[in-house]
Every structure is written in C-alpha cells, then in structure tokens.
C-alpha cells in the first residue's frame, strides 16, 4: 500500500476543499445519544470557550477530538468530489449540527448575513447553481439532517439527528457557564481521548432507544448569573472551526479500508462485532458491488433480525462452520471466511442460510422467514423450536441451525428433524433437572455443530452422529434412572432459573390437558400462571398437620421435598393460596382451577412425604416420554 494522505488540523481546513463527505448506506445510522456522546463533545467545546487565556496572547487552547478517515473520491468535472467516510461519520455529523445550532440560536438573531456565511462556508458546498450539504448522511438520517442544515422544520423530530440538534440548541440557550473539569474525581490523572470507537460503540440497545430520560447525567449546579451571560458568537464559532483539531486520513484504497477501520477501533470500547463485520465486508467490495450487495443481502438481514439478532446470527453461522470462538472474536473469524472465498459468495450464503436461523429464533413468525425463502415450517417443528426458544436456546443455536439447514435443503425429513429437536430439548431439560452446571453448554454445542456440519452422509448418518455425540459420557445427558432420582430428590425450584422450572411444569401440564389446554403463560396477571408450592416453603401450621397425618419427620420433609417437582404445580392464584392449609388449597383448587396438573392433587386427603414422592414418580413416568433419551 502506498503512502496515505495524512494531515492534522481544524475543521476549517477539512472543509476548505470542494468535497462532499458521504456516509455509505451499509454503515450504521447516526447513533450518538444527546446526553452521552453529544454532551461529551459539547462539553469539550464549552470548556475550550471558557478556558482562561493563561499565556496572555489572546489565543484559545486547541483540543484534539479524534480522526476522520475517507476513501478515494469520485471526481466530477462540474461538481464537488464525493468521498466515502470510512470512520468518523458520527463526529462529523455532530460537529455540523453544533454549527447549525450556533448559527440558528446565537448568530442569526443579530447577524443574518454572518449566519448565511456559516452555512455556505462550513455546511454546504456549491454544485453548479445549487448547493449540497457538505456531509451526506445515510438514507435513514439524510432528510432530517438536510432540513436542519437548510433551516427548515424537521419532519421527524424524534429522529436521532433531530434529538441531537434539539439537545445542542437547549444547551446553547442556557448561555455560557463555568464547565466542570472532566477529570475531577477520576482515579487516573490522565483523561482519555474522545475517540470515535469509545463514543460510537455504546450499547446494542442504543439504536432502539428513543428517550434519554433515564441516562445517568451529571448536571452541575450553575448560578443563574453565569447562565444568563451572552455568547460571543465569533469566539464560539472559532472554537468549533479552528480549535477542535482532527487527524484526517484521506484517499484510502478500497482494499485497505477495512484494515484501517479495524485498527482505529481496536482500542478503547470497541464497536460491536456486527459493525466491524459489516464495514469489513463492504469495504472489500467495489462501490457498485457494495451497493448491490447491501440492497440484496445486508438490508434484508438487518430488517428482519435487527442489529442484536444479526450479531447472534453471524456468531452462530461461524460456530456452525466449525470455529468455536467467543463473540468478541467473531469479527476476526469472519475475515478469515471472507479471505477464503469470494466476498459476495459469503454474503449469498449468509442470505441463503438466514431462513433456517429465522426458524430457530422466530419459529412462529412466517412473515420473517418469507423474506429469505418460500419454505414452509411444519407446525410440530415450529412448536418444538418455540419451546426451545422459550427455554433459552442461545447455546444450542449452532446445532439447531444445522438441523434446520438440513431440513431446508431436503437432506433431513421433517420427521427426523423433529426427532433431533426432541433429543436436544431432552438434553437440556434433563441436565437442568439433574443440576448439571450449564456453563459448558456453549462449548459442547459448538463442538457438536462443527462435527455435524462436516458430515457429508444422508439423514441416517446425521441422526446417528447426533445421537452418538449427545450420548458421549462427557456430555452428561442423564439417563432415565438419573432423571427419576432428580425428580424425587433434587430441588427443581430455583430462584434464579425458575423460568425454566416453569417451562418443565408447563410442558407436563399441556401433556396432561391435551387439546383443551389453556394458554399457559408465565406472569402475575389474572390469566397468567406462576409456580405454586403445595407444601409451603415457609410453613406455619403445616408442621402440626404433617405430624397429625403421620409424616415421619415434618421438618425434614419440608427441608428436603418442598422444592422437588412432586410438590410443585402451576396456578393463577399463587398469592391467594400462599401458605394456606392443605384443606383450604383443595377447596380453592376445586372451585377455581381446571388445570389437571393441579386438580390431580384433589385426589389426596393429606399431603405428606409419601404423597409428594408418589406424585414425583408419576410426573417422572410422563417426563421420560416427553423428553426421551435413546
């Protein structure tokens, strides 16, 4: 790679040339939050503005705010050159919005001519008889941004761009004040640079949030006298255009752009893995190929999955191909995949495989799946996948993806796919009931997926291979006798994972109820269900009742059996039943409850260790049929 065009200077130098800085559509939309990243940049500006002239030379201090990296531009004979922004779009857009706010709030009311000059010099560039905005955001942000630059009302005031602008306007209207030291209270005496990686990354939830009301913002108490001061607009404009300094890296070749992008974002708070992958993928393609691939592949993936699930898909896809890597290393693994094949071929494969992943994470959403392919999903498979989704299927996803891909391409019948899903459900349920620690599940299923994906045989070979892998002694898939011991002796109710205990009881209830089963949904509403201990965990008069019924050791029974499955059921009246006596609970159940899992308790006249163990035995016999182990 030849020498890059690297320069260092203020914003005024960057915008001197006739360039339009364009954000490619495949990059993330504008995502800086007003009270976080925007507030940090505005705070820097206000501090430089308020800093004392310690040298007595009348010059303001400079402040470095990061870098802007651009690719090779498209030279036009009669218009400005358009250059793609590789890194720094969030910073450039925010600086432009700050200039717009200064122009509109501080300059325009007293100096309309100077306000127009700000627009012409820093915000737009001539294009024949017209003008275009000097920064050209992605399609999602473009309309709001352009209307702000043109001084027009924004059609979408809740857009991230409009919210950032509104926040800056509010801050400017407060007037200048004495800004707090950003390093005050920090253990480290050295303040970190306001880098794009740290400010741009944020959290995967940032793009979903529309309200900053819950942000943790330190607001300094300022005197009304300080805030009623008037801005010196020339000084403020100088701070933004001449005192905030940037490193500009320009004319980066397309085939090297992603390397620079990754290097610049390798320290501090990294961008999400899906951001890194997206930019790397499209920087490896030519402009024409990138636009086509974005519209045909990436846009549908993002539209259906959203950012967080797309990241999960890419991670699952990589693992299923035999690479057992944690999420933080997914980007590097994807780069190797891209280097080992044609970039467009990899994208096409991702699009082709997306139907199967959609079935895994949204089994009851046929519309989402239809975006990728016109395959049907049999109701029984959808039901099985939904149960696994409700259980928590993230560790299983690589193997689930393998099963559904084989069903999708016809190498696995619906019957055999159902058998595979049944075994996988049995594997996680039985391990949970036997209190096998779940911390190795991701690695277990990653290794299994890698072996299965390399298998070239028919469906019999696949089913046999899956069975052999799950039955490996090291996998710890409990046998029928081990499950019986768990049902009779181990606590199934556990505070931190009682949602999975609920799923086990729900499945048993649905099986007992048959086709007339009501919708069993976890919750506290009048039509929702929760877990009920028949023998309370904190009994009052139950000790006396147990003794009167002849229980051999009431205190021990409560300690050892109250959380076992034989003592658990589902009810919508948990708060009403609470620690009530057994006779009271029976009357309530008889008059209010229709769920057979619960009404079966009515056959008992008393509730001792014997009844709890007997019910546990009955539920175990049903469980080994619902969650079979070959």
What does this structure look like?
By secondary structure, the chain is an alpha/beta fold. The protein has 28 helices and ten strands. The chain has helices at 11-14, 34-50, 89-107, 112-123, 139-149, 160-173, 196-201, 224-227, 233-243, 254-264, 273-283, 287-320, 330-340, 343-361, 366-370, 379-391, 397-408, 414-433, 441-453, 459-471, 480-489, 498-513, 542-548, 554-561, 574-577, 582-592, 596-599, 609-626; strands at 5-10, 19-22, 63-71, 81-87, 124-127, 130-133, 135-136, 244-252, 530-533, 568-571. It has a six-stranded mixed beta sheet. Strand 5 and strand 6 form a beta hairpin. Helix 10 runs antiparallel to helix 11 (273-283), helix 11 runs parallel beside helix 13 and helix 21 packs antiparallel against helix 28 (609-626). The longest helix has 34 residues, at 287-320. The radius of gyration is 32 Å and the shape is elongated. The model is unreliable at 180-228 (pLDDT under 50).
């Amino acid at each position: 790679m030849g020498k890059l065009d690297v320069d260092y200077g203020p914003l005024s130098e960057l915008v001197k040339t006739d360039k339009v800085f364009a954000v490619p559509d495949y990059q993330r939309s504008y995502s800086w939050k007003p009270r976080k990243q925007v507030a940090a940049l505005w705070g820097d500006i206000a501090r430089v503005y308020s800093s004392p002239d310690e040298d007595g030379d009348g010059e303001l201090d400079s402040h470095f705010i990061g870098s802007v990296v651009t690719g090779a531009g498209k030279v036009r004979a009669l218009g400005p050159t358009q250059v793609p922004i590789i890194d720094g779009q969030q910073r450039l857009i925010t600086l432009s919005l700050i200039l717009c706010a200064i122009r509109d709030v501080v300059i325009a009311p007293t100096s309309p001519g100077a306000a127009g000059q700000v627009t012409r010099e820093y915000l737009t560039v001539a294009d024949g008889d017209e003008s275009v905005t000097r920064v050209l955001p992605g399609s999602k942000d473009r309309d709001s941004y352009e209307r702000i630059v043109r001084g027009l009302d924004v059609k979408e005031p809740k857009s991230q761009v409009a919210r950032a602008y509104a926040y800056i306007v509010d801050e400017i209207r407060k007037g200048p004040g004495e800004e707090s030291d950003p390093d005050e209270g920090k253990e480290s005496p050295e303040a970190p640079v306001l880098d794009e990686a740290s400010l741009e990354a944020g959290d995967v939830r940032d793009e979903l949030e529309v309200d900053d009301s819950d942000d943790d913002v330190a607001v300094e108490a300022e005197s009304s006298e300080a805030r009623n001061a008037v801005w010196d607009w020339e000084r403020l404009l100088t701070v933004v255009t001449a005192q905030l300094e940037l490193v500009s890296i320009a004319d980066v070749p397309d085939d090297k752009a992603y390397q620079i992008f990754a290097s610049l974002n390798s320290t501090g708070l990294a961008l999400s893995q899906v951001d890194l992958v997206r930019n790397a993928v499209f920087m490896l393609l030519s402009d024409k190929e990138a636009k086509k691939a974005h519209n045909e592949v990436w846009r549908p993936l993002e539209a259906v999955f959203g950012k967080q699930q797309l990241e999960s898909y890419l991670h699952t896809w990589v693992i299923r191909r035999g690479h057992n890597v944690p999420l933080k290393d997914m980007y590097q693994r994807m780069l190797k995949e891209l280097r080992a094949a044609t970039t467009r071929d990899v994208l096409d494969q991702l699009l082709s495989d997306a139907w199967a992943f959609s079935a895994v994470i949204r089994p009851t959403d046929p519309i989402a799946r239809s975006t990728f392919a016109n395959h049907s999903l049999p109701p029984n498979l959808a039901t099985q996948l939904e149960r696994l989704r409700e259980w928590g299927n993230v560790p299983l996803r690589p193997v689930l993806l393998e099963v559904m891909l084989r069903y999708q391409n016809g190498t696995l019948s619906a019957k055999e796919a159902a058998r595979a899903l049944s075994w996988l459900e049995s594997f996680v349920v039985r391990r949970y009931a036997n209190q096998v620690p779940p911390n190795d599940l991701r690695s277990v299923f990653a290794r299994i997926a890698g072996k299965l994906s390399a298998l070239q045989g028919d469906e019999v070979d696949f089913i046999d291979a899956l069975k052999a892998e799950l039955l490996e002694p090291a996998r710890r898939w409990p046998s029928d006798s081990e499950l019986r011991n768990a049902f009779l002796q181990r606590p199934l109710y556990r505070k931190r994972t009682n949602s999975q205990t609920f799923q086990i009881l729900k499945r048993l209830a649905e099986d007992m109820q048959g086709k007339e089963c009501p919708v069993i949904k976890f919750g506290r509403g009048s039509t929702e269900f929760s877990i009920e201990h028949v023998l309370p965990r904190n009994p009052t008069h139950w000790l006396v009742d147990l003794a009167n019924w002849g229980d051999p050791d009431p205190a021990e029974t409560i300690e050892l059996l109250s959380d076992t499955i034989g003592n658990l059921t589902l009810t919508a009246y948990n708060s009403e039943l609470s620690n009530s006596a057994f006779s009271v609970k029976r009357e309530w159940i008889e008059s209010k409850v229709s769920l057979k899992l619960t009404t079966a308790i009515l056959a008992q006249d008393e509730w001792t260790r014997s009844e709890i163990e007997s019910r546990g035995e009955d539920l175990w016999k049903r469980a080994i049929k619902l969650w079979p182990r070959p």
